[in-house]
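help with this record:
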Amino acid sequence: MTNASSDPWIAADDRIVLAVRVAPKASRTAVDDRTMLADGRPALGIRLAAPPVDGAANAELTAFLAKSLGLRRSDIRIVSGEASRLKRVELLGDPATLAQRLAEWIGSD
């Protein structure tokens, strides 16, 4: 797995794993910014309008990522942190293409 040190994702053979820090119950769903976690790892901040109740925030996160990155919802899976603000989200597809879409979407180099 590879990534640039400030990118909040790690590329693998057929997917990317994206580190996300969510803020549920926001006024609107949107990308916040890249952030550094306490342990020094980068993550992408995302505000979600949905509350963290009955999976609503996770469903909104999946739908938001799918729409923003041109993926099917079935190509997105929360692999850790389902009940946490810190999540690891798997995006299935060509890693180079996904990395380019992510970089364009969040405005990285």
